[in-house]
């Protein structure tokens, strides 16, 4: 595939920059974890299995920051499976990947399961983050049709405000790699491969179900544009009906396929917690049972009373956990004491809202017709490119829908990682603003700004012949001379990237 061409200097720079950023993140989390004492957070902390040896202690010092907050759930599931009811809010794809890699890793020294899983999480998420950055680069080239805008967006991804969650034992890197890869394959017309990747993404995070909308929109738009391409006679109506029915059938099949991993997991949890006599029971350590009694956790196969969600018409454990354990629901987070969390989510909320407003303002007719009517420029083959081009419409809608749902129905502080791992818009729009308003980037031969200002110089390399200039590094090295807008964008990305490592890795509250 053309994405992996060795002759592509932009891809090579994206990969190396992603690896360098990840290495720096792992180093900094180890330093901060050593210097700052862990906060005594009221978070899930299961008892450790087995006696910890010197190599386990060393690995905990080096990588322990990756196992905080929700990472404890993923590591526990990878080691013991779905023993506790509230673990079922975390879908199985990432824990399965951790367990498989931990089993395959050659280990010359004795390590307890947690140590092996921490090492597997660091390696797996490093690989997945690189794949996600490369997939974002390819997706940006296909949609934006401005290679350097796509390049800048892919570089920004490696300094994502959600960076700590891409490094820690969370499913964000896996989801981003699968979702961006699926979107890219759909843009290339590889619908079956796209559907497979979307389905895997839905096995990593529940919001992957929303990605079925991309497949539906692509099918409907292709059919509607085909109708606009030629006059339809009465004789052709039966053929059109057949095509429409085929479209409905294929769309339904695609949605069912994308939803299948999530549905299978819900069935598995139903059997595990609602029908404990089916043979899925396993021995539970006494220390874990004591923790469950102290905290009120429900353990699979323990006790005769069935969980209340088992008797619901649609017994979805995921919805029950979000409601009963974490009080997730419409406007439930709108309390005065949550103002600090709303402030944490303010930058990403403003940026994605600004992105939606910018796109709608630039394309009012395209938005009103849902992108289903070709403009005259499109008919002439001269459609606008870049962030405000027609191809970005469905991605703006997706990002705005996630933003609205997350703001009104979720714990609002998770918006940064929710959007940062699910949508390319955060990176595309930031790259658009930088290229539009930062004169330093005009002089390096980046895509011409939409204002029509010509580039001030030729594209050149900072690394030698045959390599690609890194505009993010150039902006950081010239921090004093860049515009306030550029400082705001880069300050948000770098500030959240660094603060996340300081706070999250020491059990301090973060997004």
Model description:
The structure is a single chain. This protein is mainly alpha-helical and 511 residues long. The chain has helices at residues 9-35, 54-63, 71-80, 93-104, 113-144, 147-157, 163-167, 172-187, 191-202, 212-228, 237-274, 286-295, 317-324, 339-362, 364-368, 376-379, 393-409, 415-420, 425-437, 439-442, 471-477, 484-504. It contains 22 helices and no strands. Helix 4 (93-104) crosses helix 5 (113-144) and helix 9 (191-202) packs parallel to helix 11. The longest helix is centred in the middle third of the chain and has 38 residues, at 237-274.
Give the SSE layout:
Elements: H1 9-35, H2 54-63, H3 71-80, H4 93-104, H5 113-144, H6 147-157, H7 163-167, H8 172-187, H9 191-202, H10 212-228, H11 237-274, H12 286-295, H13 317-324, H14 339-362, H15 364-368, H16 376-379, H17 393-409, H18 415-420, H19 425-437, H20 439-442, H21 471-477, H22 484-504
Q: Quick gist of this model?
A:
By secondary structure, this protein is mainly α. It has helices spanning 9-35, 54-63, 71-80, 93-104, 113-144, 147-157, 163-167, 172-187, 191-202, 212-228, 237-274, 286-295, 317-324, 339-362, 364-368, 376-379, 393-409, 415-420, 425-437, 439-442, 471-477, 484-504.
The total beta strand count reads: 0
Judged by helices, strands and strand pairing, the structural class is mainly alpha
Shape: globular
Name the beta content range. under 5%
Q: Helix segment count?
A: 22
Order of helices and strands: HHHHHHHHHHHHHHHHHHHHHH
Oligomer: single chain
Rg over alpha carbons:
24 Å
Parts with pLDDT < 50 across at least 5 consecutive residues: 449-468
Specify the biggest β-sheet: none
Helix percentage? 55-70%
Mean pLDDT: 88
Distance between the termini: 36 Å
